[in-house]
Design goal:
Length: 232
């Protein structure tokens, strides 16, 4: 590749997505994630591998590696890289090597599913908006990720066919964690979901399923699009 010949133009000026080296821009993003406290090397490597600019409109491609959430159509957003990395790190806590089967609720543009495909053996990702389900399929085609399974349906019901899951991660925030998710979680499995706390704001909730029951921790405040029931 002609990497050495490329003039040192600013990241924002580079026409990302047309074959130039976005790897360097991503490496900087990963470095920043590490500085922000993401420690899991497997997560950092996955974040460095997935070309985020391929998941957003070309007009937004030059913002793809900034730590910002971006619109993906139909009123939905792709989370900022820091939040994606943080949630996957929480999902993997205590795991050495790859996670087993993972369920993602809210495929959106498919970006997080692509990141998950590098840290889990199988990824089942469900989306309730047909337009986004189809867009994600289109976005992911390029990557040929054989272990990502996209499902169109209501993720509030989970996806029993892939259960039990080593991990469940929600990209949409509800008032409570649906019982179906806990039922479909393997013993020893972990769930990470933005949820409304008793204090009335949305925070990341982590649940660990043990033989004795569910261990729940409430972490930092977040802002996710709402978890809705039914399909559209
Ligand atoms: N992980 C996504 C983020 C998408 S935003 C990405 O990387 O792009 C959250 C998504 O959750 C939205 O697309 C929204 O339509 C979806 N969603 C909300 N409630 C849902 C439900 N019950 N089942 C499936 N998807 C849902």
């Amino acid at each position: 590749m002609g990497k050495a010949l490329v003039q040192p133009v600013s990241a924002a000026a580079r026409p990302l997505g047309v074959g130039l080296d976005s790897g360097a821009v991503r490496a900087r993003m990963v470095q920043k994630l590490a500085e922000q406290g993401i420690q899991d090397k497997t997560v950092l490597a996955a974040m460095g591998q997935v070309e985020r600019h391929r998941f957003v409109e070309s007009a937004l491609a030059n913002q793809a590696y900034e730590d910002t959430s971006l619109p993906i159509g139909l009123g939905q957003t792709i989370s900022k890289p820091n939040v994606v990395a943080r949630m996957i790190e929480l999902l993997r806590l205590g795991t050495t090597g790859k996670l087993g089967r993972v369920l993602e609720i809210g495929t959106g543009c498919g970006y997080q599913a692509a990141v998950l495909s590098h840290v889990a053996s199988e990824v089942y990702s469900i989306e309730r908006l047909r337009g986004l389900h189809e867009k994600a399929r289109e976005n992911l085609r390029h990557f040929r990720l054989a272990n990502v399974h996209l499902i169109f349906g209501d993720g509030m019901l989970g996806y029993p066919k892939g259960a039990p899951y080593a991990g469940i991660i929600s990209a949409a925030g509800g008032d409570a964690v649906p019982q179906a998710w806990l039922d479909q979680l393997a013993v020893g499995g972990r769930l990470v979901a933005p949820t409304i706390t008793p204090a009335g704001h949305q925070a990341l909730v982590v649940m660990l399923k043990t033989e004795q029951g569910i261990e729940r921790s409430v972490l930092e405040a977040v802002h996710f699009v709402p978890l809705k029931s039914g399909i559209a």
